[in-house]
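Handout, section 4.2: multi-component inputs.
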Amino acid sequence: MNTMSDPILDIRGLTVTFGGGPKPVRALDGVDLALGRGEVIALLGESGSGKSVTLRSILRLHPPKRSRIEGSIKVEGIDVTSLEGRALESFRGKTVSMVFQEPMLAMDPVYTVGQQITEAVRNHEKISAADARARALEMLTLVRIPSPERRLAAYPHEMSGGMRQRAMIALALASKPHILLADEPTTALDATVQVQILLLLRELQRELGLSMIFVTHDISVAVEVADRIAVMYAGRIVETGTVRDVIRTPRHPYTIGLLSTRAHGGRLEGHRLPAIPGSPPDLANLPPGCAFAPRCAIAADACRASVPEPVDLGGGHRVRCFRTAETVNKVAALAPAVTS
Amino acid sequence: MLTYIAKRVIYTLPIMLGVAIVCFLLVHIAPGDPLVSVLPPDASEQLRQQMMALYGFDRPYAEQFLKWLGRALGGDLGTSIRTNRPVVAEVGKAVSNTLMLAALATVIGFVLGSLFGFVAGSFRDTWIDKVASAISVTGVSVPHYWLGMVLVIIFSAQLGWLPPTGAGPGGSDNWVWDWAHIRHMILPAVTMSVIPMGIIARTVRALVAEILSQEFIAGLKAKGMSAFGIFRHVVKNAAPTALAVMGIQLGYLLGGSILIETVFSWPGTGLLLNDAIFQRDLPLLQGTILVLACFFVVLNLIVDVVQTAIDPRIARS
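Output:
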């Protein structure tokens, strides 16, 4: 599945700071992430935890004037942070491509779907308009859009939400990228359509051998698509490991909290849904220590004093927590109390 | 698309009728005697009554209106009291003069306005934006008759490069497309273009800034589009609104150039209206206003149709 000795994407110490406001906001702080060839990593976290910022950094989509990017992003050995001009343009969409959360907003409303796909294809390859159109048709067929011939001439607003997201995926895959970034691709969709899009992405990923980073705030989605999960909190990856490790034996108190807040059908019937106490921190005013410490049931003085470095628990399972000794097999005890 | 155009054309009919009623009434609501300009001050009451009957002013308003409308539909807007020539001929000549001037002014205003607007919107909050915005705000704020006089002082009186007034050498009435005539257009057209330039620049700046902040711009970058490729998308998204604003500005210029045409003695509709008002030439006044109002309606229709052709969302959704 993955040989981590030669990752296709290697992010080291990625720190992104946004200026412009009254106080600079550190949206990402020392993110390390390695994606193996053909591997799917789910970035899991709540709004503002830095999932989308990470994805957009890989494609260099942040406004250069209002953002400062430190650390390194290497894709197939190329340092993305130093790409400029034509090199950056041919990298975007060709090597790394992205599926956006809201296809209605991410596609140009006054161009047809066909025009947008052929434009992407011809941007990277010197082929005729007819060949590009044939490719667009092939892509729409690949994502299983009904009557693809007709959809080529459709505008984004003339399609249903699920079909739009399929078209978005076709657009993203049109130039045959090696890495696909999916930014909550199912969040804006109906529940039934979510499953279809998820299955489609998983199938295409296997069929085309894509490496993929899948951003989501939904644990069950992460479990469904990913080989590994990276949990983000306040701009840091707090826990990463195989899906099995993270779900069965979570070791970061935040991950444990997330898992226990999932509704399990009848188990909680008649009870209040548990929640992690407190609210996510303000990124412009982060505490000096662990960002989760104010909400953590087992936080000690050390947690408030400095930021914990990743602890390797073996098998690629790494946790940024000082108190890992306390979190072994203590899932139930640490979960927020279920009150009736 | 054809049904949409047909629908839009039918919608304009009641608007036209309303326009005609307002034109007719406006002139009759205005205080004063419509015959004051034709009758000598010491005319007898009997002569006055005769004249009233001759022009039909003694009939009820509804009857007068229907008669007037019926004739207007047949292309007869009556006879000018002052010159005794058909109103249609007077208006037609003035309209062609104004049209030339307004078209040139709109082209200048649209080209410069789009340019300033695009630059300002693309380089928002930089000094380039501030300079371009300052120019457009000045354009909107400066009184254009004042600007016209200043231009005359500089380019005619001081430098002697361009003629100050008229539409041809020696005040000739017949327009010819040669330099001797065209140079008469330059100063009034430039003066006229300043307001639409400012308005279009501000509109385009806001449009471009808004479009650039949309998610699909990130989408275009993500698929590797060059700056020029993205620029094309921005233009196509901004075009419908920019064109609509340009159409409305052209409409204003067609009728609203009284001050400029008076300053430059340009024999267009503005000057004609000015004369008709001051000389109480009722048929001419009504005819001119009606023609200008219809221009406005037709222009809006054209803008709507062009917009639909560019932006697929308007007709189809």
